[in-house]
What we know:
Layout: E1 2-5, H1 14-25, E2 29-32, H2 44-49, E3 54-58, E4 71-74, H3 82-92, E5 100-104, H4 112-119, E6 126-128, E7 130-131, E8 144-147, E9 150-153, E10 164-168, H5 173-181, E11 187-191, E12 196-199, H6 204-220, E13 223-228, H7 236-249, E14 253-257, H8 264-267, E15 275-279, E16 296-297, H9 299-306, E17 345-346, E18 353-354, E19 369-375, E20 378-384, H10 386-393, E21 417-418, E22 421-422
Parallel strand pairs: 1-2, 1-3, 3-4, 5-6, 5-10, 10-11, 13-14, 13-15, 15-16
Antiparallel strand pairs: 7-9, 8-9, 11-12, 17-18, 19-20, 21-22
Helix pairs in contact: 3-4, 6-9
Amino acid sequence: xxxxxxxxxxxxxxxxxxxxxxxxxxxxxxxxxxxxxxxxxxxxxxxxxxxxxxxxxxxxxxxxxxxxxxxxxxxxxxxxxxxxxxxxxxxxxxxxxxxxxxxxxxxxxxxxxxxxxxxxxxxxxxxxxxxxxxxxxxxxxxxxxxxxxxxxxxxxxxxxxxxxxxxxxxxxxxxxxxxxxxxxxxxxxxxxxxxxxxxxxxxxxxxxxxxxxxxxxxxxxxxxxxxxxxxxxxxxxxxxxxxxxxxxxxxxxxxxxxxxxxxxxxxxxxxxxxxxxxxxxxxxxxxxxxxxxxxxxxxxxxxxxxxxxxxxxxxxxxxxxxxxxxxxxxxxxxxxxxxxxxxxxxxxxxxxxxxxxxxxxxxxxxxxxxxxxxxxxxxxxxxxxxxxxxxxxxxxxxxxxxxxxxxxxxxxxxxxxxxxxxxxxxxxxx
Length: 430
């Protein structure tokens, strides 16, 4: 039993492909429809519901490793004019000694060998990245980069910052993720649809400023919603546990939410949540939350906000697996600091004082608000949840009965008719 996963634009061909696969292999084929999360990720949950033993993933993919099932990726081959792409590369990099790393969307990976044959004799310092997927990676070599399912070896003495990046593909989330991750490198791109090459003018510094502003919002937040954006990428359960522990020690309350694909209407139901953190693959983690009622941050941005041991170094991490134990960028939580010795911080947004230290994991409890509440004419100290605290801060809290405060009156007959002309109203003559 094999599951065939198609993106929305290829579902029209799914039935024909499944029929030919069954005739050729004798295996039972299941076609997976719209996935719960991004179509670039392998939907292992839906495949397991059908009892599948393997998954064939068609179309663009983020190449995130899966937890259980073996996966075969069929990227497809979108048309690419290799000659025009090579010409655009020569126009963007006239200096033949330029150090350039060539990246591509997965649907154009088939043509990178031909492009390499045309450019390598002219550019001795050019590097072509390779796709890495299908199995656990081996030990990395010195100077080797492995991110987003791409692998390439940098041999320059100055490292990657001595190179420029050339991307073959259309503008989208993949290119944005590359530019934020390798923000020390200038980027150029070639769009196969329009056959035009250009230097990317996206102001990476402005984008980073926007993300660092969200880090400040995360420091001010008291209630954090953890959005589960994947159920198949390796390590997502470990990251959920890490985020819960980090928020608990940072004195913040957290809720774990599985809502599928996030949209403003879904997340607007959780008004008491101050900020959301999305646990998803590298390409789907970076959401533009300008249309949302509350901002959405990445796990790395939440770590910058809550983990005092992690400082901004200029390197932006998109893959949450880099934060897990054993990864290159993992940092253990520092020991707790007594409240009397903690140095308070001032919010750059609200100007209020806030705590930046971590609590003792043995003694810290889930934070809750306390207030005096009147119960049967007896004042007692009651625990109020964040939802109740949010309701208390609102000016309108719904209809109130006000028992004993409203005078008793007999029922009377009300108005009759329609709103534009009740029977007891005189109609104005034109």
